[in-house]
Amino acid sequence: MTEPDPLLAALRAVALRAEAARRLTPPAGMAVLASIVEATVALFGAEAASIALYDATDDRLVFTVAAGEHGEEVVGLAIGPAEGVAGYVFSTGQPMALADVAGDARFGRTTAEQTGYVPRSLVAVPLVDDEGTIGVLEVLDKRGDAGFDLHDVELAGVFARQATIAIRATRIERDTAHLLRSVLTALVGDGANLPDGASGRDAAAAIDVEAVVREATADFDADDDGALWALADEIARLRAADPGQIDLVRELLAVLVRRAEHDRDLERSRAGRRVAPRSDAAR
Q1: Are 232 and 196 in the same domain?
Q2: What is the pLDDT of residues 20-75, one digit of tens each?
Q3: How far is 98 from 81, CA to CA, in rounded Å?
Q4: DSSP letter, residue 242
Q5: Where is the domain boundary, 171, 190, 218?
Q6: Which of 39, 143, 188, 277 has the maximum number of C-beta atoms within 10 A of its C-beta?
Q7: Angle, CA of 121, 81 and 152, to the nearest 5°
Q8: How far apart are CA 111 and CA 116, in angstroms?
Q9: What digits encode the pLDDT tens for the residues 107-160?
């Protein structure tokens, strides 16, 4: 019996993880971020809201999505990671609220003027994940005379956490695609012929990664782990459940895991006794 190709095994393992991420993470991408800033504008009654994400390659904060009457002009603008209020919040990881931006030295008026809108007040909160600060959410000018307060900072933090979850899921998808292409590059090699006539790194880059994942995971539900995938789907649906129900499910799963571990250890013990050699006295 021939040993399985380790590269094919690697491809299958990566595809398995991609499928797990697809089933267990909520939809991600710019559409989700756009909906978050739109909801922020609506809830705050603000003139604009935007999200700037850190681009490590260029060492810049790039305003990626925005909403509100005066929001769209900022999209695509890039600033230094310590520049302006957004840079200050990003570099320190500290949220802040300014009732009068004109009187604060950290406010970047020149940058604001590039967008055609200079706010009177703002709230800025960091987007933080397990690896550190990845961006900033800004909310500009409540409509009317009301200014921002501590409650607004806390509320903006809730939106920031939702944005961070969406960004993390997006990056999981992006990194998985990159990893798949790396494995495919190793698989096809420089001399391999592919349907489109390409080979090597160029061919791997042109491969439809989603199609590869679908093909590699097509038989998962038919495997022995099919029941496990069904459980993963059920867990994904629990996102909308009451927290108390989720705690109950977690406790039940913990009981099942302990029982499974006990049964496995018991089976191993029995198997060990079955194969143990007899002593001389027993012969």
Answers
A1: no
A2: 666 655 555 677 888 889 999 999 999 999 999 998 888 999 999 999 988 788 88
A3: 19
A4: -
A5: 218
A6: 188
A7: 30
A8: 9
A9: 877 777 777 788 889 999 999 987 789 999 999 998 876 778 888 999 999 899
Q: Are 96 and 88 in contact (CB under 8 A)?
A: yes
The residue that leads in pLDDT, 175 or 83, is: 83
Q: Which domain holds residue 34?
A: 1-218
What's 129's domain CATH number? 3.30.450.40
Q: What is the pTM of this model?
A: 0.56
Q: Which residues share a beta bridge with 52?
A: 63, 136
236 and 185 assigned to the same domain: no
Amino acid making up residue 159:
F
Q: 54 - beta bridge partners?
A: 61
CB burial readout 68-86, b (16+ within 10 A) else e: bebbebbbebebebebbbb
What pLDDT does residue 191 have?
43
- Tally of domains within the chain: 2
203 and 251 part of one domain: no
Summarize pLDDT for 218-254 with one digit per residue, the tens: 665 555 556 666 666 676 666 666 767 777 777 777 8
Given the structure tokens 């459980």, which residue do they identify? 231
pLDDT at res. 220: 58
281 within a domain of the structure (yes/no): no
Whether 282 is in a domain gets the answer no
